[in-house]
Amino acid sequence: MKLSKIAFDCVQHETLVRKLHHYGIQGVALDLMSNYLRDRIQKVDVNGKRSNGSVMKIGVPQGSILGPFLFLIYINDLPYLAKDKHGIVLFADDTSLTFKINRRELAFDDVNNSLAKVVQWFEANNLVLNGKKTKCIKFTLPNVKHVKTTVLLNNEELKLEDTTVFLGITLDSKLQWGPHVNNLSNRLSSAAYAVKKIRHMTDVETARLVYFSYFHSIMSYGILLWGNAADISTIFVLQKRAVRSIYKMGPRESLRDKFKDFKIMTVYSQYIFENLMYVHKNISKFKKKCDCNNLNIRNRDQKKKVLSRNPPNWPSADWWTSHAIENVIENFGEQVS
Fold it and tell me: Where is the Reverse transcriptase domain (predicted)?
């Protein structure tokens, strides 16, 4: 859900001060925050001609450290509208509503009622939703029969999208990673071209810096989620193109042993590394076999292997906690600790 205006410019000072008081900011601290917002004057300067000043009663200063914090305080009570099986995810001015609905249910009245309450909340807080930028997507398995649904926002029907971008990750309505890999490939193709152009003008070390800051950062973002995609080989082809550009290698020269020599992880190795890092940092979230039964078996302290209904081409983080990688995780933990 997107706002019609810049979110930070719509914050009402009086409402914000009341919410700060509600969350326990009182006394001198509240007076300090009130003075920070109060009596700010805004002018317009066009070709040297300046308008009269106007005292601003809405909006928080942008570019400041307190600006994002104050806006988050302003919208912090929005998730309280969520009910069971519903969720509201906030990220700055980007609001996402999630609903878990039985596929046998034909009516979406609950969804529309919740949307109406969210719209009322935004209006009460001087925030206006942009219906054209607000998207609706229904996640189902590929073999699930499509059910006709109507989702309304301000009495206007929202079009059901096949894909949507959430925090830089392309989500597909059929729970497949193909669209994200396609979008990622386009971005990485441009990054590989940039590395090639930089290499023609600079040395190897500069090209490596560009590779890691540009290509590698794009490639590794969110790889823990999409790294088991079936067509990840497309990303590997683009990665090899970028690495060949750094070292001015021919298109037919093998990179089989070069990645290790160049100290560059392949996309496959990067996925495994991110899984290991995730498991190492969140080891308490994974159950042991002894947590699932009271049997005094030999491997009771091993992590329980979680299998999905359709095993992926590349295992997920849950798989990496199984016995096959147990020793690797322990050795990895000793190296990073």
Answer: 1-171
Contact by Cβ (8 Å): 314, 232 = yes
DSSP assignment string, 300-332? TTSBPP---SS--SS--TTGGGSGGGHHHHHHH
- Residue 297 to residues 9, 75, 288, 300: CA-CA distances in angstroms? 62, 51, 12, 5
Task: Kindly state the greatest CA–CA separation across the chain.
Answer: 83
pLDDT per residue of the chain (337 residues) written in tens, 0 to 9: 666 666 677 788 888 889 989 888 888 988 888 888 887 887 888 888 888 877 777 777 777 788 888 888 888 888 777 666 677 777 766 777 777 776 555 456 777 887 888 888 888 888 777 777 788 888 877 777 766 777 777 777 878 888 888 888 888 888 888 999 999 999 999 999 999 999 999 998 999 999 999 999 999 999 988 888 888 999 999 999 999 998 888 888 888 888 888 888 999 999 988 888 888 887 777 666 666 666 566 655 555 555 455 444 545 555 544 544 455 545 544 444 4
